[in-house]
Amino acid sequence: MRKLDVFDTTLRDGEQSAGVNLHGSEKLEIAIQLERFGVDIMEAGFPASSPGDFKAIQEIANRVKDCSVAGLARATKSDIDAAWEALRHAAQPRLHIFIATSPIHMEHKLRKSPDEVVETAVECVRYAASRFPVVQWSAEDATRSDWDFLVRIITQVIDAGAKVINLPDTVGYTTPSEYVRLFEYIRANVPNLGDVKLSAHCHDDLGLAVANSLAAIQTGVEQIEGTINGIGERAGNAALEELLVALAIRKDVYGRSTRIQLAETALTSKLVAKLTGMAVPANKAVVGNNAFAHESGIHQDGVLKNALTYEIIRPEMVGLNSNRMVLGKHSGRHAFKEKCEELNLQLGEQQFNRLFAAFKALTETKKEITDDDILALVLESSIED
Ligand code: KIV
Ligand code: ZN
């Protein structure tokens, strides 16, 4: 199976989530967990953005040895110098340098002509490649850029020393089939791609970040980017845990291997949620509290007979002990009986029927019935007896 590099940007794009501000020690704690999770590259931050981020990146670079540590830089020599200072002691330092390539960004944000953008990009990549062993270049807003302009600038930054070319869907605008065509166009028209790796980086403004990333993987990109829990600018980035589980479950479709230790998923997600203060929605795929919870009688009956009836992901795969049977108004006798056995209740048939009726009555007024609720019902019924 072909290897896919996993580039985690929780500590850079993820930290750009509104309201998130991680201290150096918190960034280091997440970095150590990401290393354990098995990412190939972690983007530790944006060294030129603040002295605090610079120091945090430096500490991560000194400590993390089992994966590449990257830092972000705009296309300026001072950003590249700051990144080199922060990352020079990393085991595998990488510079991630970007410049916008879409007409709207070039004209209104950069106020540069396309020729000037090419010149700046080439000059900075050449300068960066004289220091960093690996330079990754990103065409910001690639999905709203002219494809022939992308071919021209990519060809030149590769000549200047870029080893990884990333085509971000910066504003979450593209669709799976359009993103596929973009990568195919670049592969077919950039003459000097050689060993250069192509990378996909998606945002979730239209809720398509994971779908777009998976489509890019099917075109054969060598690297995928995302964040834990999908945190990031605006609606966030592609959720790495969703991508990685999809790759593991649907090997028949994607046929790609990674170094990821999926059993570390739940822990990694919880740590990121705790330290960023961004709670994971209950219905979030893979890591939400309800992702392995079954409430309706039909589903509970099926899962109790064979979990595969309603679970395509086994909870153990992502580091959880078990699924959860939630007792609520849709639950049936099978799940209720299991719960009584789990609580060690010795009930005759009539007692069980009465308890089940009392449980059903309680669900009229209470959404989720806890163990304590059931024990209280048992106590009430024995007093009545
Ligand atoms: O979304 C984006 O374009 C980015 C770049 C800095 C690569 O995060
Ligand atoms: Zn981004």
From TrEMBL:
Known EC number: 2.3.3.13
Domain called Pyruvate carboxyltransferase: residue spans: 4-266
Keyword Manganese: yes
Domain of life of the native organism: Bacteria
Keyword field: Acyltransferase, Amino-acid biosynthesis, Branched-chain amino acid biosynthesis, Cytoplasm, Leucine biosynthesis, Manganese, Metal-binding, Transferase
Coiled coil: none
GO MF term set: 2-isopropylmalate synthase activity
Record's keyword annotation contains Cytoplasm: yes
Catalytic reaction equation(s): 3-methyl-2-oxobutanoate + acetyl-CoA + H2O = (2S)-2-isopropylmalate + CoA + H(+)
Required cofactor(s): Mn(2+)
Biological or metabolic pathway of the protein: Amino-acid biosynthesis; L-leucine biosynthesis; L-leucine from 3-methyl-2-oxobutanoate: step 1/4
Positions contributing to Mn(2+) binding: 13, 201, 203, 237
UniProt enzyme class: transferase
Annotated function: Catalyzes the condensation of the acetyl group of acetyl-CoA with 3-methyl-2-oxobutanoate (2-ketoisovalerate) to form 3-carboxy-3-hydroxy-4-methylpentanoate (2-isopropylmalate).
Family (UniProt): Belongs to the alpha-IPM synthase/homocitrate synthase family. LeuA type 1 subfamily.
Oligomeric form and interacting partners: Homodimer.
The protein, known as: 2-isopropylmalate synthase
Name of the encoding gene: leuA
